[in-house]
TrEMBL record:
PANTHER family: PHOSPHOENOLPYRUVATE SYNTHASE-RELATED, PPDK_N DOMAIN-CONTAINING PROTEIN. InterPro entries: ATP_grasp_subdomain_1 (IPR013815), PEP-util_enz_mobile_dom (IPR008279), PEP_Utilizing_Enz (IPR051549), Phosphohistidine_dom_sf (IPR036637), PPDK_AMP/ATP-bd (IPR002192). Residues 29-250 form the Pyruvate phosphate dikinase AMP/ATP-binding domain. It holds the Pfam family PEP-utilizers. Signal peptide: none annotated. Residues 774-842 form the PEP-utilising enzyme mobile domain. It comes from Actinomadura livida. Residues 726-754 are annotated as: Disordered. This is Phosphoenolpyruvate synthase.
Amino acid sequence: MPVREWCASAASALAKAVPEGDLAAGLLAAFDERIGADATAAVRACAVPGEDGGGEDSAGDPFAGMSDSFLYVPRDGLLEAVARCWASAFKAEAVRYRALRGVDPARVRVAVGVQRMVLGTRSFVAFTRDPRDGSRHHVIAAAHGIGEGVVQEKADVDHFFVDPKTGTVRAEVVAKRRMVGPPADGETDPRVTEVPEELRDVPVLTDDQAQEVADLAARVEERFGCPQDIEGTFTPDGAVHLVQARPLAGEGPEAGPRVLWGNHNVTESFPGVSGALTYSQARMFYELAFTDLYRRMGVPERRLRANAHRLPRMVGHLDGRVYYRLDDWQELHGQLPVFDLVRAGWEEGMGITGDARGHRRRPRARAAAALLPTAWHAAGHRLATARLLRWWDGLMEEVHGPAAPPLAERSPDELIALYRRVWAEVARRWGVTLANGLYGLLVMRAGTALLRRWAGAGPELLPGLLCGGRENRSLAAARAAIALAERAAAIPELKAALLAADAGDPGAADQSTGAERLRAVWADIAAGRYGSPMAAAARGYLRRYGDRGMHDLKLDEPTPRQRPWAVAATIAPFVRQGATVAGNRAAEARAAADSRRRLRAACRDPLRRAVLTGLLSPMRWFVRTREDTRFIRTQLFGLSREVLWRLGGHLAEAGMLDDPMDVHDLTVEEVIGAFDGTLPGTDLRGIAAVRRAERERDRVAPPPPALLSAPAGHRLAAALRDVRPAGSARDGAGAEPDPDAPGVLRGLGSSGGTVRGRAKVVLDPGIAPADCAGRILVARETDPGWLPLMITASGLVVERGTLLSHTAVTGRLLGVPAAVAVGGAVGRIPDGAWIELDGRAGTVRILDAPPER
């Protein structure tokens, strides 16, 4: 007898075995007691282990989706539903599945669970581990309506990614049109309906609700002691109900070493997406500066050599964003015995939490003993700082002084020579600025500890106490802008022009943009329309402070030195506020006086107060030095920007770039190599175009989390695609193909691996499994009935689905690459076409020709 006929016969016989007698009476009595005679129930089948231990829902041998469930079952339908659950053990796909898993197809035990139905309005499936790589991230798929919409891929689904360490929630939201709700009157099956208009574009779950689901999943994992796959629903009153839980199928240990990355601190300097020019300059800066720091702090040369490979990779470029490679930072800083005394503060500043914190610590006594050699190295710190600032001021006079030839008049060779000379000096001097941070952190820690102990005050008192003393360079830059605004406000015509041009002025007479109006105002200032003293003051401000601006360490962002009219935008708000330098100084003095008064009131002991006051002097010096060196760092990157942009202009003139600003997508080595003759190849235009397209995609895509763990080595890029799912928005059928990559469709990678083969577009699963043998199956959606086809296929591409859907789970179980939510796959991929599927990235590439064998 053919398998399908044998299965149908066995299922039919079991379906007729409706419970009767004492069993029936017991079931109905339990229904009345637990469900309610007038309520409805969910009746679910589940294969349970036999004597040999085989059965459903073990982590290594899941049978998910192979048994039937029935919803909204009334009391008078209970007994029949139980029999139908038993019968589902012999569905053809369930028998084939057991054969595939090496279980006797004719032997199975089925238990039936009966649950009270609740009116779920939002439902979810959640994994306690990322099902693609086993990493510790909770993944939630949620849809409006009941859970069948998520499980059977009949609803449009939002995904939520919850980091259990930080509680960070990332949502990938689609336009939701379909949901599954209760059956219509007189029917028994749930029905697909439309999502109300007001709910279509908002996330199914709030961040708090996603966190609530993640917490529930974590408690279930803790209860059962292994990663879990749970289903649940929210009722209209906001209560969450757990429907079922099972061990996570296909979850394995996190293979190989992992690398910890974070950008909690670095976003202050390099926010958002940065081009190759910015990243390569930042990478060189960190390598040179920290090498000099470790030498200054007495790290032996042999240890520096042993860790030399770590220095160039202190920062990485992940999805276009600058990240710290925290494992290397901890290892490199760990070379400093005194580091353990400040590790906690450093980790807090870097956003390192939980298990990511460093655990390899020296004994406290040994760390304290390192204070003496640290003090020895610190003895010459003030002198070294003075030398650094003196050297830098001389360089700025040479480059931007009144007698200096403009950079625009220098040849490429002269520009490159200047750039190399500056960075050679940085390599042997810049460690002073980092040592200042370390010494300052030690002194700050001592000062805050004494404040807490003697004055009962926290660090909130410190800012006021640190006010006063010599003005630092960052503050001087701010006050210089205020002074320029004061001068402008004293000229009535200029004041009126600035107020009218300010983008915040609602009464502007003309309709031009604020930027255009400010540009015109600056042109009038520079041309001397408001007097030569004002023009000279503006030029002096630009010469001294032209590198200070928003994102001034990013070489792909202009500063006032490249966009002089930005000075007008800087001073316009001060003019509107009526700000004055005297008023700013008075506010600082009031803050200092208030803090000193609070200190006297909190610390009555004059001796202790004298000690605290004595500590404040070096603390002020370290803070002032920090701000001074931060300002000259701005100027360092400003000079580098000016040189490299001008070199980009020369490359464009030579026809090697289409536009001077394409230099943003080249590395420093490539730019200089183009002039030195050390550049491998000559297609700078092509390199810049590829990176520009990548940068634009990164700019619109959801960013990775601030703290993430990813596999080391060549698996890093793929892991990042898992951490940040491909695509920034999807409609109900998946992501639209990337317009920058013809022939490429994008979805959610759900089962890793890459395969090339011919596509088999399937609209009806009734075809022979042999037709899919060795082919990449392409479909709109699948369900357990597709299993015979999926077993023979070499890859799976589905228009609908989630990371938790049947297609995704089955692909991981069978070990074949799979991608779900691939928008337009059936219409875009011709049957029989050669395609390449990357199941981790979620991409499908249509090939022009068969792949080479």
